[in-house]
Design goal:
This protein is of the alpha/beta class. The protein contains 12 helices and 15 strands. The longest helix is centred in the middle third of the chain and has 19 residues. The structure holds zinc ion.
Length: about 375
Amino acid sequence: MAEQFSALFGSIADVGRTGSGGYRRFAWTGEDRLLREWFTGEAVARGAEVVPDRAGNLWAWWGDPDTEPGVVLGSHLDSVPDGGAYDGPLGIVSSLLAVEAAGPLARPVAVACFADEEGARFGTACAGSRLLTGALDPSQALALKDADGITMAEARSDRPDKDPEALARIGCFVELHVEQGRALEVPVGLATEIWPHGRWRFDLEGQANHAGTTRLVDRDDPVLAFASMVLAARRHAEQLGLLATFGRLQVSPNAVNAVPGLVRAWLDARAPTEDLLLQLLERLGGDPTQESWTSAVRFDLELADRLSDCLSAVPRLPTGAGHDAGVLQEHGIPTAMLFVRNPTGISHAPEEHADLDDCLAGVAALTTVVQELAG
Ligand SMILES: [Zn+2]
């Protein structure tokens, strides 16, 4: 299996690779098309029939899901800017190998390859799965623009829509994913939930002025307020036991010799409970614009128990990262996630890594799961 895994995982190692050693695999680009063709080819070579759904996701089916809903594995192949090799592809590669290793199965089985999971190009995460379930409105999605002003409608050749028939073919969904913190000390773990998550935009206004002539006492510099806010967010996050990040910032006029007149900053916050997120916002004050809100997702307990029973001693852990699995669970599909240990905890960066032995443990676990659920 080590050779099989390395060969399959390595066969896409050059697609979308940048000088940093990371990946740029954005939805509906040449790289994305190559990866989808690769997925189709590898699935067909393993005896699957590959069909797209109306939302633009790919489904590799073994057996006929119209006779009985199937067991679906899967993940995504797109990346964030300069993302790592494992986030997404590890799940796809492991799923293909697990179905192959599982041998003949009684129930239909699929590997789903979700489109535009990261939202790196159009700013909306899990676009493929959310279009599929109807959680994302197609006309709203098609109007989204990338950094070059190209709309999603221009970028993709199809016209997406929700697809209840594709959803009806899913009996349950299991996504294997590289763990993205340092929350896992053994090779494989089982997700319990995805933390609630919000994004807010703060507009801090001041008065733009000359950096060389305006006396300090005369300045109304919003960067000072922003600096306090960043430090406060960190302090509150530590006290409340949550994660808060100001990862995007616009300073206006953004000139080295000008006192800024406006700071626009985006806060990403995730917490064990929704109440803690609201407490953070209250403590920070200001009047931020909420740009997104995702409630907590609790994965199907019955399915998790079944996976626990057939796998030996897998710890359960929550995660702060969103996934297509969360979207499907929210839609009422029994869903589970397996995590593979990430020794450094680095993710969404070129250094993202999982050891080969842990990846193989992931494939073995997923194989056992497929045999349990579909055997
Ligand atoms: Zn991912």
